[in-house]
Amino acid sequence: MKRYVTLSALAVLFLFPLVWSGWASLKEPSNYLEMARFGEGVGTYATNSVLVSVMTVAGTLVVSALGGYAFARFDFPGKNLLFLATLAILMVPYATILIPLYVLLGYLGLQNSLVGLALVFVMFQLPFALFMMRNAFEALPRELEEAALVDGCGTFRAFARILLHAVRPALITVGLFAFLASWNDFFAPLILLNDGASFTLPVAVVSMTQRTFGAIDYGMLQAGVMVMAVPCLVLFIVLQRHYVRGFMSGALRG
Amino acid sequence: MTMTLGRTGRAARTAPPARWRSRKVQGWLYASPTAVIVGVLFLAPLVLVVWMSLNRWPLLGQATFNAPANYAKIADNPLFLDAVLFTLKYTAITTVLLSAVALGLALLVQERRPGIGFFRTAFFLPGAVGFAAAALLFYGMLNNDFGPVDPMLQALGITSEPVKWIGTPDMALFSTITLVLWRFAGFNMLILLTGLQAIPVEVYEAARSDGANRWQIFTRITLPLLRPTLALMLILSVTGSLLAFDQFFVFTNGGPDNSTVSMVMVIYRDAFFRFDLGGAAALSVVLLAALVGLNALMMRRLR
């Protein structure tokens, strides 16, 4: 019983900020209307965020599913080197890689580009995603693939028709992590996007606080927090099981 | 092909050279998107950042080789040296508090009981909110005029006037750490739960039947067996704190009086406010080297 009192008190502490923010944003519903008109309009920023997240999730799934299959089922020269190089992404500070990426994406004609930003997010997701997908393909019985190959399928048909269905839980986990990271990230878009019209939500809403003129509209700010947070909260609660499982396999082996 | 016919059946079936070579090519094809992403967006920038650090590299305009000027001037960058000290202090306090809170939470929700799933979710939920959004949430919640915290503390008689939550260096650090604890405690709790659940129940039962009390069980069994998981959490917390940016950029904006400027913030300012990409690159390379060294050291000592 004492344990439940402690737990409940802690739960109140942890949930209070979220509840307060929702309440503060709704206290004057005009907060949302003002936010809709802020800067380029919240619609523009939300669209940018959705575009970047969709491209990141799709890109991460394609690259890591193909790569995971390669690492689980094929032997090729440089295999270990490529795997180590991918894991090394985890070791390098965000800032260290983003400063040159700012220059490099300029060379590639992807400066201030949502596509460029999504590609960078795919790169940051790759260590976790590739690791998850390789383990998922390794866990499949080899007979599954061999039966398809005997039936005359090429490896790609076996991959696309059969194996991909079998690793669906891992794909959901990888997609969820990719969405949360790309939707929420602040530092990469801050550095790589420099035109207000291409800002994603976090950069746009933070810029509300950094205006030199005029008072900060705190109600509108909390409306911005809610627009960013609610999709993540809903998605997390719905897909919690997948999140925790991905987390466990990552944490235990990492 | 004629060579394989002479071999024993088993070797011929598992590795016929023609098929084998084609599987090699296929493996490469499946791995090629990974190779392109890692090569172009990770390895190339890594080389570029070193090259940039050896050049005078303005945000706009021509780069000129000037090594080792970018490294030499780090010693004359008082903002960076202050930032190093501040970031180390922040890292030490955050890591200690975060480990303690996360361990406490993990022990509280460790056993499966009715309703425990709700509490686990409640503690983790802040972790689903983006860090920048969480910082903005606290920015409003701790505001003296708009936020609910001051009126509540005054109603409870804990304070008598509005608290300068981000108005003094110490309070700014305190408030930031509170924000970080709120946002990351559940995440670290989850890491520790994976470790706790890997401890076999029989070990606890054996200890209990030997007459060990709760404290003895905690210090003699739980902590030692949790060591690898604690090490992982420690490494993640130290690395994350040393690279802190969002919380200070969004929440305290480095203030008051540059008292909460982290190392990564200096890199950002050098690059995009002082337009000195070469200097920022040199700082980034130093940070990378320090972090790789530190991680290697921690892994050797802790594992």
What's the short story on this structure?
The complex is a heterodimer of chains A (254) and B (303). Chain A is an all-alpha fold.
Oligomer: heterodimer
Highest-level CATH class of the largest domain in chain B? Mainly Alpha
Q: Give unreliable regions of chain A as ranges.
A: none
Give the proportion of residues in helices of chain B. Answer: over 70%
Class derived from helix and strand content of chain B: mainly alpha
- Give helix and strand order of chain A, one letter per element, not per position: HHHHHHHHHHHHH
> Would you count the extended β strands of chain A for me?
0
Number of strands of chain B: 2
> What does the largest sheet of chain A look like?
none
Fourth-tier CATH superfamily name of chain A:
MetI-like
Describe it:
The complex is a heterodimer of chains A (254) and B (303). Chain A has 254 residues and is mainly α. Chain A has helices at 2-27, 30-37, 42-73, 79-88, 94-107, 114-139, 142-150, 155-166, 168-184, 187-192, 201-209, 218-238, 240-253. In chain A, α2 crosses α12 (218-238), α3 (42-73) runs antiparallel to α9 (168-184) and α9 (168-184) packs antiparallel against α12. The mean pLDDT of chain A is 91. Chain B folds into 2 domains: 2-53, no CATH class; 73-302, MetI-like fold. Chain B has a two-stranded antiparallel sheet. Chain B is globular, with a radius of gyration of 26 Å. Chain B starts with a helix and ends with a helix.
Features:
heterodimer, A: mainly alpha, MetI-like fold, 13 helices, globular, B: 303 residues, mainly alpha, 2 domains, two-stranded antiparallel sheet, Carbohydrate ABC transporter membrane protein 2, CUT1 family (TC 3.A.1.1.-) (chain A), membrane (chain A), MetI-like_sf (chain A)
Secondary-structure topology with pairs:
The complex is a heterodimer of chains A (254) and B (303).
Chain A lengths: L1 H26 L2 H8 L4 H32 L5 H10 L5 H14 L6 H26 L2 H9 L4 H12 L1 H17 L2 H6 L8 H9 L8 H21 L1 H14 L1
Helix pairs in contact in A: 1-12, 2-12, 3-6, 3-9, 4-6, 6-9, 7-8, 9-12, 9-13, 11-12
Chain B lengths: L1 H4 L3 H6 L2 H37 L1 E2 L7 E2 L3 H4 L5 H31 L7 H9 L6 H11 L7 H7 L13 H29 L3 H9 L4 H29 L3 H7 L10 H10 L4 H26 L1
Antiparallel strand pairs in B: 1-2
Helix pairs in contact in B: 3-14, 5-9, 5-11, 5-13, 6-9, 7-12, 9-11, 9-12, 11-14, 13-14
